[in-house]
């Protein structure tokens, strides 16, 4: 699971008012280099909830992201590199995601989050 | 009096029938008590009942398959029966098009708050479990990219985030290398195949996507919605696709169509809604002997397979299923009604009913059946049958095939989605929506 994907995930249990962002606990992760695409980063930046990204990055030990970010920073190559690394190059293999409201745990196994709910949660 | 009962199979109970009065209470006991049915598989039960030709006029009744006795108390069973029956019945209206009827409940007006996001048993058994069992084999046959889907994906701007809900083996993930794809599917087995190809995927339910609003640039739902067994769930899945894309985002949906291009493969399918009525079915009718209505053995494969003995079951399956996927289906009644004067399954008033609920078989060759996977216990649990003649296990997948205009009708209730394109392509109904 990349942190880009994590930035989209939300707990959808019935009755939960705000299931985003899911708190990440990572037990195992890998880093895989991939080519930086500045256009893509500029396109996706407005979609990203920055605090959630920064928090998830810290959970995998990457603390190079600023606490806050604005579009002006996209002109900086250094910022782009950090943004790119956090968003696309970190893959959480084993761990869990926790709903901020209910604490409900969603497991991540072999890089795959299991977001299925139980009968009583829908 | 006719009582409509929903779920695995549809039928009408005729209380004046001796088999009904003797069998029904026992079956009710089985259901309420959570006991397995006296037949190994629901489809076999269907064919066994239909084999009773003397009682052929009465309608058989198949009760809900109860997966686990402890899961349901009687109230919840009753509740589920109602909620799932409410959208499971189509009947012809005066114009001959299908519409949803209110449930005829023997339980009065009990209120039911069962969520539409709760998975009906027919999907659990004949979609989820089947795909988990056949995943590797199924995946090996899913490689051709449909041109219309390809052109949609290629039309999206560079850098788009594309959400594939019901991605299967991930056939379209990464198709457009300029875009970022995120896939989900209900089948862990299929998702593992996606993940092994380094895609960003998760196990999730298309009826309840675990995504926040407005994130994607586009979403696709390719041959997914026809596995949802109620109209409410199908509509909810479309609402989810619209919810998760940004304003102005596009959604492509394709589903199998009732209206076929090539009428040659119908007999491979089992229709799930049978009506027998004394006025319609005469003793001399060929209906009872029609192999279409029986599932005791899978008929011979396509002509091309029969003639070419070198073709393996696997190749035949691929040919068959690719043809099916390109949508060759006819209404089950066509072959029947042609044998008799007048219409057998249609009221004499001339109203027509379109068969939309089917089991579509999947042949999993023995040498492809995973030893430690779901297929190992499939025969014991009745999920599959063995066909030694073909050297394959036969699974059934549930389908609700769509009629012309049905997608549009589902979308019409969604305020923030407008139709930007709609077309019929290789026996699929397709629609492109834009979120406003």
Q: What oligomeric state best describes the polypeptide chains here?
A: heterodimer
Low-confidence stretches of chain B: 1-15, 28-113, 274-351
For the largest beta-sheet of chain B, the strand count, sense and barrel status come to: 7 strands, mixed
Q: Name the helicity range of chain A.
A: 25-40%
CATH topology of chain A: N-terminal domain of TfIIb
- Tell the overall outline of chain A: globular
Structural class of chain A: alpha+beta
Tell me which protein chains meet in the greatest interface and how many residues each side has.
A-B, 27 and 29 residues
Instruction: State the order of secondary-structure elements of chain A, H for helix, E for strand.
Output: HEHHHEEE
**What is the spatial order of strands in the main beta sheet of chain B?**
7-6-5-8-9-15-14
Could you characterize what this model shows?
The complex is a heterodimer of chains A (122) and B (436). Chain A has helices at 3-6, 38-44, 50-59, 77-89, and strands spanning 23-31, 90-98, 105-109, 112-113. Chain A is of the alpha+beta class and 122 residues long. Chain A has a single domain, classed as N-terminal domain of TfIIb (Single Sheet), CATH 2.20.25. Chain A has a 4-stranded antiparallel beta sheet with strand order 1-2-3-4. In chain A, strand 3 and strand 4 form a beta hairpin. The model of chain B is unreliable at 1-15, 28-113 and 274-351 (pLDDT under 50). Chain B has 436 residues and is α/β, with parallel strands linked by helices. Chain B has 12 helices and 15 strands. In chain B, the strands form 4 sheets. A 7-stranded mixed beta sheet of chain B has the order 7-6-5-8-9-15-14, with helices on both faces. A 4-stranded antiparallel beta sheet of chain B has the order 10-11-13-12. In chain B, a hairpin with a 5-residue loop joins strand 1 (3-5) and strand 2.
